[in-house]
Automatic annotation (TrEMBL):
Residues 1-86 form the Rieske domain. The keyword Iron applies. CDD domains: Rieske. InterPro entries: Rieske_2Fe-2S, Rieske_2Fe-2S_sf. SUPFAM superfamilies: ISP domain. The keyword Chloroplast does not apply. It comes from Paramagnetospirillum caucaseum. GO terms for molecular function: 2 iron, 2 sulfur cluster binding; dioxygenase activity; metal ion binding. This is Ferredoxin subunits of nitrite reductase and ring-hydroxylating dioxygenase. Gene3D superfamilies: Rieske [2Fe-2S] iron-sulphur domain. Keywords: 2Fe-2S, Dioxygenase, Iron, Iron-sulfur, Metal-binding, Oxidoreductase.
Length: 88
């Protein structure tokens, strides 16, 4: 989805939600090649489908791949009245 001109996505893990700008720190490309597919096979990490970098869901830090140690840009979100919305 696009919010304020930025491509963003949200991942739910348990009762928490984490939002990020959909831009890989490797070359700035969108992470996903298919709509709404942002996780690896095991659903435990965020995957960049371009060169297979893996990112922690909780903080966006790259733990494997060509941008190791760099991080996704956060897009802070919260659950308000049962909806995921940008953090106020
Ligand atoms: S563009 Fe994401 S790992 Fe290369």
């Amino acid at each position: 989805m696009v919010v304020d001109g930025k491509r963003v996505f949200v991942v739910r893990k348990g009762g928490q939600v984490f939002g990020y700008v959909n831009s890989c720190p490797h070359v700035g490309a969108p992470l996903n090649l298919e709509d709404d597919r942002f996780l690896d096979l095991f659903q435990t990490s965020i995957l960049c489908a371009n060169h297979f970098a893996l990112f922690e869901i909780e903080d966006g830090r790259c733990v494997r791949g060509p941008c190791l140690g760099r991080s996704l840009e956060p897009f802070p979100v919260e659950i308000r009245d049962g909806l995921v919305v940008p953090k106020a």
